[in-house]
TrEMBL record:
Domain of life (superkingdom): Bacteria
GO molecular function annotation: DNA binding; DNA-binding transcription factor activity
UniProtKB keywords: DNA-binding
SUPFAM superfamilies: lambda repressor-like DNA-binding domains, RmlC-like cupins
Record-linked PROSITE patterns: HTH_CROC1
Stated name of the protein: Transcriptional regulator
Pfam family, any one: Cupin_2
Source species: Sediminivirga luteola
InterPro entries: Cro/C1-type_HTH (IPR001387), Cupin_2 (IPR013096), Lambda_DNA-bd_dom_sf (IPR010982), RmlC-like_jellyroll (IPR014710), RmlC_Cupin_sf (IPR011051), TransReg_Diox_bact_type (IPR050807)
């Protein structure tokens, strides 16, 4: 994975402004914040180093690590890219020969406009796997975002979604899929009248 996120995004401003589109649940944000703090320190990075690499503010990084603010999918993706890890790696201790993940143990991140379930395994290094439930009008965020060094696969499991890639829209119905490079500006939205579910796979190059 690339050492930093793409510069196509504006830097994070005041807390609650750019983050208002998609929010993590309060319980999960504390876990994520502490995991990010530990990963940052393990890489010998200061909060300012991480903020610069991710294109976010030092204030945002500081408050998020302490569990005092929320993060969008956009911001989490950029932070993980800057740390050289997948999102799922934040929940893992290390690889095991055989790993069974029970439904009740799946990490769930409740977002505004989406619910994300993380299936990433240490047995598949460099690969993030998760499902996203989208109510009608729900999306990955108000704005498209980008990050370097990965390829992405989206499978529409149910419903009707639009995948925006570099301002071009691709429509997916149940069992349709799309693959694209992560450095393109991308965004997903449920444009149907019923709930939609997608499987999202992100792989390091």
């Amino acid at each position: 994975m690339a050492a930093g996120a793409s510069g196509h995004h504006p830097s994070e401003g005041a807390i609650g402004a750019a983050e208002a589109d998609v929010l993590t649940a309060a319980g999960t944000q504390a876990v994520l914040g502490e995991a990010i703090r530990q990963r940052r320190r393990a890489r010998g990075m200061r909060q300012g180093d991480l903020a610069e690499a991710a294109g976010l503010s030092v204030s945002f990084i500081s408050q998020f690590e302490r569990g005092r603010t929320d993060a969008s999918i956009n911001s989490l993706t950029r932070i993980c890219a800057a740390l050289g890890i997948t999102l799922g790696a934040l929940f893992q201790d290390g690889p095991r020969a055989v790993e069974v993940l029970k439904a009740e143990d799946v990490k769930v991140i409740d977002l505004e406009g989406a619910t994300k379930r993380v299936y990433t395994s240490a047995e598949l290094p460099g690969v993030d796997v998760y499902t996203v439930d989208l109510p009608p009008g729900g999306s990955s965020g108000a704005k498209a975002y980008t990050h370097d060094g990965q390829r992405e696969l989206i499978i529409c499991r149910s419903g009707f979604v639009a995948v925006e890639i570099d301002e071009r829209q691709y429509l997916l119905r149940a069992r349709d899929s799309i693959v694209f490079p992560s450095e393109t500006m991308h965004r997903v939205e449920n444009i149907g009248t019923a709930d939609a579910e997608i499987t999202w796979v992100v792989r390091d190059l």
